[in-house]
Amino acid sequence: MDTITLTLEMSVVLGLLAFTVFLFVSEIVRIDLAAILVMVLLGVISQFPATQSVADVSHLFDGFASNAVISIIAVMIIGAGLDKTGIMGKVAALILKRGGKTEGRIIPIISGTVGVISSFMQNVGAAALFLPVVSRISVRTEIPMGRLLMPMGFCAILGGTMTMVGSSPLILLNDLILSANETLPEGQKMEPYGLFSVTPVGICLVVTGILYFVLFGRWVLPKGQQDMGGASGQTLKEYLRRIYGLDTDIVEISIPERHPCGKMNFDELMQKYHVYVIGSAVSGQRWFAPVVTTPIETPCRLAVLGPLKEIREMVLNEDFTLHKDLEVFAEDHAPTKSGVAELVIPPGSDLIGKTAAEIKFRRAYTSSLLAIHRDEETLSYIETEEQEATAIAHVPFRAGDTLVVHTTWEALTGLTRDRDFVVVTQDFPREELRPRKLGWALFFFLVALSLILFSDVRLSLCLLTGAVGMILTKVLDIDEAYEAVSWSTVFLLASLIPLGQAVQSTGTAEWIAHQILALLDGWPLWSLQAGVAVLATIFTLVMSNVGATVLLVPLAVSIAMAAGGDPAIFALTVAISTSNSFLIPTHQVNALIMGPAGYKVMDFVKSGGVMTILFLVVSMTMMNVVF
Q1: What sign for the dihedral angle of Cα 607, 613, 618, 623?
Q2: 117-162 pLDDT per residue, tens
Q3: Phi-psi category of 551—alpha, beta or left, where left has phi over 0 and alpha has psi -120 to 50?
Q4: Helix (H) or strand (E) holding 108
């Protein structure tokens, strides 16, 4: 190999690389600000005559219009659009139903699913698609997002190694092989890889990632606390106990067919056992807040709120079935969709003197009245040490009454415009789901996916087609689209792109590669392959994986030919190893999950360090076994 001389420009870029790593690890400033600072320094340094070739200042901000950054913006909007229809909540409910509420069962389901999806679409798209699903699961199970997002993100990256279309380097590899063949002797030309040639390697890597977090997650994942924040985030049980002294649980019960309670209505059942029926499901139909005067139909399922002792007594006396977890009503009673709120009856309200039963409160406001706070007393169906149980559905409202209700956030948003109430609770998600737009959302998601898989259209344009389609069909409006974008992620990635380009354009990357490979000269064949894998891993942390692949594949082929190895395996080693990007959040997926989970760089170093080594060992072993 020819000797490459270290120039002033290379030295400057090496210094900037070291400075970037220092800022990332020390976290003296926020990581996105650190990336912007490095980009600015790169531009300023390029103004001096001696170092003006370090970066082309006229293209310094091209990263903001790069394919990768625009793609991330688009997938965030597409993910938000799908979430707006409520489908992601249903996916979360399905995962909880199959996987329960334990970290050890949820992680394999989420991570495995994302890994498979990312084998056929860009890994950042798969991760962005499941971000709202993980958010909902986190709220329902009270497992911090930091415990779930990193396994999902890592498996999204690993899933890209399962097919030849799962990641950009693998897509590019066959073109690079054909290009390299032009310089190889006739008997040593490489055969392009088939779509599923790498599948055994990818499957083993995904399984390794899942097992790693299932077995060692308790030690390597950050032990963050779930930030519930405010009335809207607290569980109904916690809020009622803390504010009103009502000790309650929410459970799901089944009433068998032809049960004698079919002669009662919900109000009579509630008064008899001092509980609340806050949901009912009959013949496939579900009511969030069934009207109290409605007769009980059998067979049915009910969501019941009250003291667990009273609920168990009711179940025992009436021969009902008590279910361990919420199943039918899991979505309805998730904190992301519903919760407890306070409403005040103002002077002049038309409701003064009327009862909840008279006005059919539940039907009119899609809310269950749980208590009336009046003159330092809290009236409710639940008996406490200070207060006897009261049939509040039949208590006339007075001016100044505070009504404690269990309601959907959508219904509460509507109540803020009702002159008969003053809504005291303000810290609730003002989210309006649009299930009627599900068809349009799925259509444009499939359009974007089809363009990615079956056309040569640029990835960012494919994804933007789906995103703009959702906005035009009002799946979400343009302001909601802006809100869906994590701008810190956008600035982090866009600001690092010029540094990656400088590493490549100044010859710094090639100089580093030659220095490392010179050290490996004369080593056994397997160690040369391992050195190529380590080199690709290092390069993908500081520059784009595509750039690292383009640079290193020709070098790897040359090394293999000189050492008597298989050049196709060495080339594949580079393309696979550029997915080994777990140490710092420079990969698009890591940058995407960093903000929502509140990760620090050291969280990636801690969890990603072991994953990096496992990746090298498993990928090297499988490539040599399979090929």
Answers
A1: positive
A2: 888 777 877 887 788 788 878 877 778 888 999 999 999 999 989 9
A3: alpha
A4: helix 103-117
User: Predicted confidence band at 321 (pLDDT cuts at 50, 70, 90)?
Assistant: very high
Q: What is the CA radius of gyration of the chain?
A: 30
Q: For residue 408, what are the β-bridge partners?
A: 338
Residue 611 to residue 154: CA distance in whole angstroms: 9
Query: Which amino acid is present at 68?
Result: A
Q: What is the DSSP string of 130-172?
A: HHHHHHHHHHHHT--HHHHHHHHHHHHHHHTTSSTTSSHHHHH
Strands 402-408 and 377-379: unpaired
Token pair recorded at residue 109: 């389901």
What is the sign of the dihedral through the CA atoms of 544, 546, 551 and 555?
positive
Mean residue pLDDT of the chain comes to 84
pTM greater than 0.70: no
Calculated CA dihedral for residues 462, 468, 469, 472, nearest 10 degrees = -170
The Cα 578–Cα 558 span in angstroms is 19
Residue 110 in contact with residue 148, Cβ under 8 Å? yes
Terminal Cα-to-Cα distance of the chain (whole angstroms):
27
Among candidates 79, 72, 80, 163, which has minimal Cα distance to 115? 163
Q: Tell me the DSSP string of 459-525.
A: HHHHHHHHHHHHHHTTSS-HHHHHHHS-HHHHHHHHHHHHHHHHHHHTSHHHHHHHHHHHHTTT--H
- Which residues share a beta bridge with 402? 344, 373
Higher pLDDT, 625 or 223: 625
Cβ burial, residue 228 (10 Å; 0-12/13-18/19+): middle
Adjacent-strand bridge partners of 377: 374
